[in-house]
Amino acid sequence: MMFLLLFYLIQNKALLLTPGVAVELPRVAGALPEGYSGTLVVALNRKGDLFFRNVAVTWNDLPRELEHAAAGHTNLLLVLQADRRASQESITRVAAIARAVGIHKTWLATQPGLLETSVEAKTQ
User: How many CB atoms lie within 10 A of CB 72?
Assistant: First the structure.
């Protein structure tokens, strides 16, 4: 049983990480968003470098890349994998770029804590 639990934890951690992009996500308990037709993922490292589809993109190219990827889709969600030390300005700038190309919801990705409870449960 312990082997299966260890195997499960190792497999799930691999699914959460974007290969090739060194981003240390903040640890926060929470639920995944629902009700979106699709998602696009942008990674932002602590230096402010952007990655879309595991390829480095410049700030000037990001609007075009997102617009091209979102063409023909509605109700998309942008998942921003921002390093916990990334600046608030950079995070807000990515969200504004997404909004300008028609992606109106941005979700900040976090690394879930295994034994943590949600904020709502702590306040009740």
Answer: 5
Beta bridge partners of 39: 77
Amino acid at 119: V
Task: Provide the 10 A C-beta neighbour count for residue 51.
Answer: 19
Strands 38-44, 76-82: pairing kind = parallel
pTM of the entire predicted model: 0.66
Per-residue model confidence as pLDDT tens digits over 14-25: 445 445 566 666
Show Cβ contacts of residue 54 under 8 Å, excluding neighbours closer than 6 positions. 18, 19, 20, 21
The reported pLDDT for the residue numbered 120 is 46
40 forms bridges with which residues in the sheet?
A: 78
Phi and psi (nearest 5°) for 81?
Answer: -95, 85
The rounded distance, in Å, linking the Cα atoms of 119 and 42 is 26
